[in-house]
Amino acid sequence: METSSRISKYFIFFLCSLIIIAPLPLGSNRIWAWSILELAVFSLACFHLAYCAKHEKPILSFDWQKTLLIPIVVMLVYLLLQVIGVIPGIDTVDAYQTTHQLLKTLTYLIFVLLLSEYCKDERMLRWVVFSIILSGCFQAFYGSFVYLLDLDVSPVFHFAEGDKARGTFVYQNHFANYLALCLAIAVGWLISELNTQRQAFEFRQAFLNALSTMFSRKLILRLAIILMIIGLILSRSRMGNAGFFTALIVVSVFAIFCYRRPPILLKPLVISIIILDLIIVGSIFGVEKVKQRIEDTSFASETRDLVVIDSMPIIEDNWLTGTGGGSFYTTFPSYQPRPYSGFYDHAHNEYIQFSIEYGVIISAMLGLWVLYGLYLACKTMHKRNNKFYKGVAFGSAMAIVHMCIHNMVDFNLQSPANTLLFLTILTLCWLSYNLPSDLKKRPRRHRGD
After folding, report:
1. So where does this one cross the membrane (predicted)?
2. How many structural domains does the chain have?
3. In this structure, how many other beta carbons lie within 10 angstroms of the beta carbon of residue 191?
4. How far, in Å, are 23, 125, 423 from residue 107 at the CA level?
């Protein structure tokens, strides 16, 4: 038992390290960077198989993992069928790109499998959540630092910086999406630290509570949230900012009615994030520029809207089986009726791009899988008594709502670092719902909750 616990710690340590490392080399959105990540994940898979063989353990330990993994397995099999083309109608117009998508999907499958297998208790889940927040804080600090220095090119990879913060990413909207996902998890953890019991007001007790807060996780998490919101604002991403604050409000309102004992300071916390962070901190770091970008947005000036409109005939012609994973930029030029101001290798709408490349049926399956993760998060907030699990579920629900909004105008799931983080958060929905509570803290209870 001690050996199993030690092995689990090693695996979780390496998986958390990958979460932090993945966005560092340009969001892993280059072949060389993604290949390093693939090699690391495949190596962990080999260790997992060797450990299972040596100790005669099953590859999957829990029944709920099948619900989590089956949609990814179906996606993997479908991509394989597109590559080999043995079934009439299921093929690809770009075998090279579809093969890349196949390898990426296999990597995602292994990562989710290992995370769900070795994250076995609340302490390990805290490590995963901490690694997400740490990664978000680093990205926010680095992106804000480079932006405020007004550098023309990034210090490491010498990419043009422009007038928007982009962290270690190539595209500022991927940076904004990554920060929003990390922010959601940080907000969830902070909510789990709030008290749920009402107490009569006493000045002495209030003073002691305020003093203890200054040296507690709550203050550190609050500062982390402020730092990441600064980075999010400096990205100048319209939907990145709008999606985050919309998700915060929607999930917070739901939690007020869903929690059996909602935290006393939940509403003041949400209001403080909106007023303190968005209005006061945002005014210092230029939230009015984001507001101006939103006001200046029009269908006449946004060629990405034309891309969505001109992509619809591709779906009509290939709605059932798709054109092949990763084949949008190969297929779209033949349907493009007019020249644009730039070259579009993605649809700037994940719903459109997935429907084009994989067909409507596979895309709908993946959408339902994500919505089921949201359902589990909401169910955890309502039914479980463990405050940390409820907080993780809150943050995961926020992240899913944000991603659903942001993906209407961008291609965040085409960035490996963003996809890896989003799949990690989806896995948290299953973990927070299924992991046992810490029985050592509740010796009188016989059930997980």
Report:
1. 7-25, 31-52, 68-90, 102-120, 127-149, 169-191, 219-236, 242-259, 266-287, 358-376, 388-409, 415-435
2. 1
3. 29
4. 16, 21, 11
